[in-house]
Amino acid sequence: MAHAVVIGASIAGLSAAQALATKFEQITVLERDSLPAEITPRKGVPQGNHIHILLAAGQKALGELFEGIEDDLTEGGAIQIEPGADMAIFRFGSVWPKASVGLTILSFSRPLLDAVIRRRVAQLSNVEIRQGVAVSGLVGSGEGVKGVKLDGGETIGTDLVVDASGRGSRSDRWLGELGFPAPETVEVKIGVGYTSRILKRGQGFLPEGMGVYVLPTAPDKRAGVVLPIEDDRWLVSLGGWHGDYPRDEESMVAFAASLPHPRIHELLTTAEPIGDLHTRSFPSSKRRYFEKLDRVPEGYVATGDSVCSFNPIYGQGMSVAAFDALALRETTDPKEFYRRVAANLKVPWRFAVGGDFAFPETTGPKPRGIGLLNGYSRRLQLASKDDPEVRRAFTAVQHLVEPPSALFTPSIMLRVLRPRKP
What are the angstrom distances between the C-alpha of 62 and each of 11, 29, 320, 336? Predict the structure, then answer.
């Protein structure tokens, strides 16, 4: 095929461009933001100042798209972490014992990952990245999409449009203008917010290892995370559900002091800060069901947050974007692509929404049986504290390496349902 246009130089957009590079003679990536030459957050990625986690399965998927990307990230300063052995995880009243879970991930800042991927895509001879360009609509008919319109009046003809413009995608209006129905949209309101700060990382790591997770047990809503990133820095994020999060320096310190594990507060009040605080709110998780449409336009697909934007606390978005890109590498047929996207989303969406409905303030369509599943999930995590086999299975499913059925085998269920103290 001749030409593909990708809307958005996000992780999803750049991964899509990489996936399509062997299928199309020319690919044009259109980005309304200015793309920095240096490794720094940019306006178009407001969450770029905050912690980002690439799940183990997502890291593997990016490695399939960009061969050797793990080496590129490591050369840029990313730090390898074994989640069970290198992290202090506090939940259900205590720090979980260290245990090898057989998985490793890389810890880095979002700007580093953006820069590494953007550099890779820019090196492709048939890809052009145009910045400072905004798309105002689609060109086509009732048969399908044939191009895009830019704010400046320019029209670009294309064989395929990939909408990676994110959560705020205007696809409903754009497709409606061509006579196509909008996909069903579901929102689960969670009122999540978080404030982050970068700190100087001195010699060595924390006494507990390479990072700290403090996770809430409902009805408590407060969480805290510390991870090491490149250039000898800590990235600290403190946040919570339904409006319970800090919004300035004073409240951030008080919030850290309120957590049941003291390490984040100690680090926040002793390490040297670098730069300003950054606060971000996330009102709801949103899912667009393109796969349910009776009429799907040819020549157009949506990907990444344009289809589904998750509660960022679960760290699933970048991984799912990489899965979508792998699906796009296999097929550009919209119906088949959306079928594969729906399969990619089934587990992480249920995992995230299920976790959010542990809080009674959460509103929106509740998945069937979520109460029973949340009850089992609580027992599963309690078992993971002291049972290495359950811990390995739980972590593998959490990182999307294994299907949820791995948590319902007879041997795991016997371990999970064994009576134990909270």
Answer: 10, 19, 10, 21
Task: Walk along the chain (422 residues) and give the pLDDT tens digit of each residue.
Answer: 699 999 999 999 999 999 999 999 999 999 999 999 899 999 888 889 999 999 999 999 999 999 999 999 999 999 999 999 999 999 988 899 999 999 999 999 999 999 999 999 999 999 999 999 999 999 998 889 999 999 989 999 999 999 999 999 998 999 999 999 999 999 999 999 999 999 999 766 577 789 999 999 889 999 999 999 999 999 999 999 999 999 999 999 999 999 999 999 999 999 999 999 999 999 999 999 999 999 999 999 999 999 999 999 999 999 999 999 999 999 999 999 999 999 999 999 998 999 999 999 999 998 888 888 889 999 999 999 989 999 999 999 999 999 999 999 999 999 999 877 65
Torsion of Cα atoms, 15 then 19 then 25 then 26, to 10°: -10
Residue spans in the chain of domains classed CATH 3.30.9: 84-106+189-283
H and E: helices and strands count for the chain: 13, 18
DSSP SS3 for 215: coil
Domain 3-78+109-186+285-353 has CATH 2.102.10.10: no
Ranges in the chain annotated CATH 3.50.50.60: 3-78+109-186+285-353
Reduced to 3 states (helix: H, G, I; strand: E, B; else coil), residue 37 is coil
Domain 84-106+189-283 CATH assignment equals 3.30.9: yes
